[in-house]
Design brief:
By secondary structure, the chain is mostly helical. The chain is built from eight helices and two strands; from the N terminus they run ββαααααααα.
Length: 173
């Protein structure tokens, strides 16, 4: 006797072979046990496939990082804001280093180190500094809503409309 359990998602789960003189037929309970074991194999197989897919994605990502770090920029688009003259921005706003750091939620040590060129701001900090350089009021209003109220800043709608136009223009460029 040969018992084969098949499923449309997986061609063959389990084959059980018995000599005719050993066993004439499987009982209903034995057939159900065989089906349960086969279903268990299917569950493990699908989980293994999901894990393999996650592993492959992770490894592909690491390969891309390695390629990017070695100078292969094909297929990569990285936008890093340029350098910002923090000292000039701060002075144009008429703020001390302490006032600048408090106003824009930056570490005073970072501001000092950036201005003295001992360290360079990381990309997220450069992005914030670029916005501060171009539209300091927007950052102040976002970080200090009470300042927006005191300045009678009524709506951000115009700011969003300007931002959408800028994004559209940047996409077309």
């Amino acid at each position: 006797m040969i018992y084969i359990y098949r499923n449309e998602r997986f061609p063959i789960f389990l084959i059980a072979v018995f000599a005719k003189n050993e066993k004439a037929n499987l009982s209903k309970k034995e057939r159900n046990d065989l089906k349960k074991r086969a279903d268990g194999i299917l569950v493990l197989t699908e989980r293994d496939k999901a894990m393999a897919t996650a592993y492959e994605k992770l490894m592909n990502g690491l390969d891309e990082v390695e390629g990017y770090l070695s100078g292969d920029s094909k297929g990569h688009k990285v936008t890093v804001p340029g350098d910002v003259d923090i000292k000039a921005v701060r002075k144009r706003l008429g703020l001390t280093q302490m006032q600048f750091s408090v106003t824009f939620s930056l570490s005073l040590d970072n501001v000092k180190n950036w201005e003295s060129h001992r360290r360079q701001p990381e990309a997220p900090a450069r992005a914030l500094l670029t916005v501060i350089e171009n539209d300091p009021a927007a950052v102040i209003y976002a970080l200090h809503p009470e300042a927006a109220k005191a300045a009678h800043y009524k709506s951000r709608k115009d700011s969003y409309a300007r931002a959408k136009r800028a994004l559209a223009a940047a996409a077309g460029a």
